[in-house]
Amino acid sequence: MTSSRTVLTPEQLQKLRDDITQWSLEAGFQQCGFSSVDTGEHGDRLQQWLDAGYHGEMSYMADHVTERGPMRALPDELLPGTLSVISLRMDYLAPGVEVAKHLQDKNNAYISRYALGRDYHKLIRKRLTQLGKRIQSEIGDLGFRAFVDSAPILERALAEQAGIGWIGKNTMVLNRKAGSYFFLGEILTDLPLDPNDTPLKNHCGRCTSCLDICPTQAFVAPYVLDARKCISYLTIELDGPIPEELRSGIGNRIFGCDDCQIGCPWNRFSKSSEEPDFTPRHQLDKATLLELFQWDEATFLKKTEGMPIRRTGYENWMRNISVALGNAPQSIEVQEALKNQKGKISGLVDEHINWALQQQGH
After folding, report:
1. Any idea where the 4Fe-4S ferredoxin-type domain is (predicted)?
2. Would 125 be classed as within a structural domain?
3. Fewer Cβ in 10 A, N or C end of the chain?
4. Residue 132 has pLDDT above 70, yes or no
5. Which of 132, 156, 189 is the last residue of a domain?
6. pLDDT digits over 223-254, tens only?
7. Is 107 annotated in some ligand binding site?
C-alpha cells in the first residue's frame, strides 16, 4: 500500500480524525475509534487457543501464518503499509424484537438476533468503503481497505484498543452505554492517525453471569471459549452430526445463540438499531419450530436470500430444527411432523429426527 499524497501536519491529522468520527456517524455507525496495528498479547492468546484445538473444524482460524506469527494479529501483514486501524460499531437489535422472552417458549424457533435481517457483511462493507472514499476525497491519495468479519483480523482486539469497548469474559466486546448487540467493522489505512489514548477499563468485575448461563458450558475459563461446545458453532459452523451429549443443551436455538449476551448485565443499556435492513424478515423473530420444519429446500433458499441464515445450508437447517423439536414439549403434532420428514432430506437429518423422536417418547 503506497501513497504519494502531501504529508499532513499533526493539526491536520487531528482535524481529519475528528472529521472521520463525524462522517462515521453520518454513515450510520454509532461509534468510531482509532488504534495502531499493535494487537498486544492477543496474538499469543490466539495461538494458545488454536493449540488447544478450541476452534474445532474452523480450520480457517489457523490459516494465514507469517514469519511474525498469525496474520490475524498483524494488520500490517494483512495489508502492507497499514499504519492505523479505524474501528467502528453498528447496533443491530431491531426495535421491538424480543430476545429472552421468545427463547423461553420451547415451541418457538430461536434465531440469533443478529441474523434476522439482511446480511450485515454487505451492508457494513459498503458503508465502510463509502467512508474510506470520503476520506480519500478530502485528502487525495489514500491507501485503505474495509473489513467486516470476513478476513483474518482480530477485530475485537483492535476494537478494544480503539476504545469501542472491552473484551468481556464471554469474549464479546462490551460497551457500558451499548451492551454488546452490535457489529464491528474496520478500515485499515496508511494514515498515521493518533490512536485512542486510553483503552477502556474492563468492567466485568467479579460477574460470571455470561459463563454461568451458557447452556452447553462452552467456556472453559473466563475469556476462553471452547467453540466445539458453543451452540453458534454447532448450529452454523459444524457440518455432520451434532454430538449427542450437547443436543439437549441446544434447546430451541436453531441458528446461533445469544445466551451469553442475554446474561450480561451491561445489555440493559443496549440500544435499538435505526437501520431498516436489520428489521426481521418473514417474521422470523416470531416463528415456531413446526412452521419452519415444513420448509422445503426451495422455500429455504427463497426465504433466506440475502440473509446470514443462508450460510448454514438447508440440510443443517433441518438438522438443527430436528434437534430443537426433540427438545420441545411432547406433543402429537411434533411427533407427526418428525415422522413426515423422515427419508425426505438425508441420512444426517434422519439420524437427528430419530433422536428427536426418542426424546419425544417414540
Report:
1. 195-224
2. yes
3. C
4. yes
5. 189
6. 999 999 999 999 999 999 999 999 999 999 99
7. no
Res 5: pLDDT: 61
257 annotated ligand-binding residue: yes
Decide if 166 contacts 98 (C-beta within 8 A): no
Q: Is 225 among the annotated ligand-binding positions? A: no
Q: Are 334 and 325 in contact (CB under 8 A)?
A: yes
Question: Does the annotation list 148 as a binding residue?
Answer: no
Same domain, 78 and 183: yes
Q: How many other CB atoms are found less than 10 A from the CB of residue 289? A: 22
Q: How many domains is the chain partitioned into structurally?
A: 2
- Is pTM beyond 0.85? Reply is yes
Between CA 304 and CA 316 the distance in angstroms is 14
Among 19, 33, 270, 30, residue whose Cα is nearest residue 164: 33
Contact 196, 33 (CB under 8 A): yes
220 and 181, same structural domain? no
How many residues can be counted in the chain? 362
232 is in an annotated binding site: yes
Q: What is the pLDDT of residues 46-64, one digit of tens each?
A: 999 999 999 999 998 888 8
Cell of 65: 501464518
78, three cell numbers: 494483512
Per the structure block, which three cell numbers stand in for 323?
434437534
Amino acid at 1: M
141 given a catalytic annotation: no
247 is in an annotated binding site: no
Q: What is the pLDDT of residue 4?
A: 56
Contacts with 259 (C-beta within 8 Å, 6 or more apart), sequence order: 103, 213, 214, 215, 231
Residues 178 and 290 in one domain: no
Q: How far is CA 297 from the centre of its chain?
A: 25
Residue 32 labelled as part of a binding site: no
Beta carbons within 8 Å of 248's beta carbon, 6+ residues apart: 327, 359
Judge contact between 235 and 320, C-beta under 8 A: yes
Active-site pick, 19, 38, 149, 277:
149
